Amino acid sequence: MEIYPLPKSMEIADKTTRIGFTVTNLDEIIKILKDDNNKIVSEPANNEWGYSAVVKDPDGRSVELREK
Q1: How many CA atoms lie within 13 A of 27 on its CB side?
Q2: Residue ranges of the VOC domain (predicted)?
Q3: What's the chain look like in SS3?
Q4: Which listed residue, of 18, 55, 56, 65, carries a Cα 20 to 30 Å from 35's Cα?
Q5: Tell me, what's the pLDDT at 1?
């Protein structure tokens, strides 16, 4: 799988596609991302799919993080 940066000719990233990753310590990852001033869309919470959060990548794409 490859993810490419947003081309300079585009102003807005595709918002219809979301990538997800399974992580081992979601709270620690969210803390690190907040310390680096990254955009947290939804704070970690339990839902029907498990303990997860959504963040934005530098181009504005949604990335779901779910704890294993």
Answers
A1: 2
A2: 1-68
A3: CCCCCCCCCCCCCCCCCCEEEEECCHHHHHHHHHHCCCCEEEEEEEECCEEEEEEECCCCCEEEEEEC
A4: 18
A5: 67
Cα(41)–Cα(67) distance, integer angstroms: 16
One-letter identity of residue 10:
M
Mind listing the pLDDT tens digit for each residue in 1-53? 677 788 888 878 777 778 999 999 999 999 999 988 889 999 999 999 899 99
Domain extent listing, the chain: 19-67
| Structure tokens given for 19 | 């990538």
Tell me which CATH code domain 19-67 carries: 3.10.180.10
**C-alpha–C-alpha distance, residues 63 and 57, integer Å:** 7
